[in-house]
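Suppose a colleague, Dr. K., hands you the sequence of a protein chain of 346 amino acids and asks what its three-dimensional shape might be. Before reaching for any lab equipment, you can write down a predicted structure in C-alpha cell form. Begin with the sequence itself:
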Amino acid sequence: MLGQYFYHEITKKTVVAFGTLFNNIEIRHKADDNDDTLSIIKVPIAYGPIQKFLARIEQQPNFERTVAITLPRLAFEIISYRYDPSRKASPITKFCGVENNKIKKVFMPVPYDIGFRLSFVSKLQDDALQILEQILPFFQPSFSVSVKLIDEIDEVRDIPFTLNNISFRDEYEGSFDKRRYIQYDLDFTAKTYFYSELPTDESGGIIKRVQIDYASAIRAPREVRYVATPAATKDYNNDQTTALTATLETSKTLMKVTSAASLETRKFIQVNNEVMRIEEIDGTNVIVSRGQYGTSIQEHYAGDKINLITIADDELIDTDDDFGFNETRTFFQDFKPFSPSQGSDV
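The predicted structure, expressed as C-alpha cells, is then:
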C-alpha cells in the first residue's frame, strides 16, 4: 500500500554512531602516596537496559558465590522516538544523489529525534567520576558525528547528539554483605533523518554539456553559440603513448621523447604525477610548460611513460574529481534556431 520495500538501516547506523562515542573510556587506579598507576581498566559497553546487568547483582546476595558482574560497566538503549517539525522541509522537495554516475532524485528525509539513555554503574565513586568527566566536556550540549545514512548515494549527514539530563543514585543501604553500586543515567537526543525508498529510474545523468545561444534581438536565430564540457585535468586511461629518452630536470622545459607523432601543441600530457602543456614540437624534442593544473614540478627519467590527456579521458572523469572545461564558440549566419526537443538546429 505505501510503496516498494526498502530498508536503509537508519536506526542501526545511529545506534552504532552513538555507541562508538563511548567505546574508549577507561579508568585508572593510582597509589595513595604517589602518582604511580596501579591498574588501567577499559570500561566495557553494551547495548541493553542497565537493569539487566543490575539484576545479576541482586540475584546473588552474598559474596560466597562466583562473581556476578564486573564493574564498572556502560550500557545504552533507545528510549524514545519523536518527530521534529522544526527541521522539516517541504514534503515534495527533492535533492539529487549520484549512484554509478546516474542522478537519483530523492524526497527530502523526515526528521526524527531518537532518545538514548547511557547508563554506567561502578562500585567506587571515584570510578564513576572518572567516567563522567571523560564524557561531559565533549557535550556543550551537543556533539556531532558524520554518518553515511544512505550508502547507495553517499548521503552523509552530521547527526548531533545532545546531552539533556543527568541523574544518579547510590545503592548503599542494607547489611554489610549487600553489594553496593553507583549508577549514573545520561539522557541524549540524536537528531537523525529517515528516508523513503530510492527511485529505480536511472534515466537521468550527470550534466556534461552546457550550451548557450546568443542573439542580437529577441526571437532572433542564434548568432553565437557557447559550449562548455568537462575537461580532464589528469590521465585516466594510462595510454602510455610515448616515453622520455633522457632525464627531465625540474628546471628544464625541453624534453626528449621516443616519438612525437601523437603529440600536438597546446595539448596536455602527464608524466608520472606532473601535468604539462605542449608548447613546441621539433622532431623528438618537445618544449613544455611545467606544473599545470596545480601539479608539482618533478624530476623525470629516461623510460618514464608519457600519457596523453584527451577526449577519451574526459569521458572517464569521476564525479568526485576536480576537472576543467573545454570551451568552444561558434558563429552562425544561417538564421536557424536551435530546437531543444530535437537537439539540433532546424
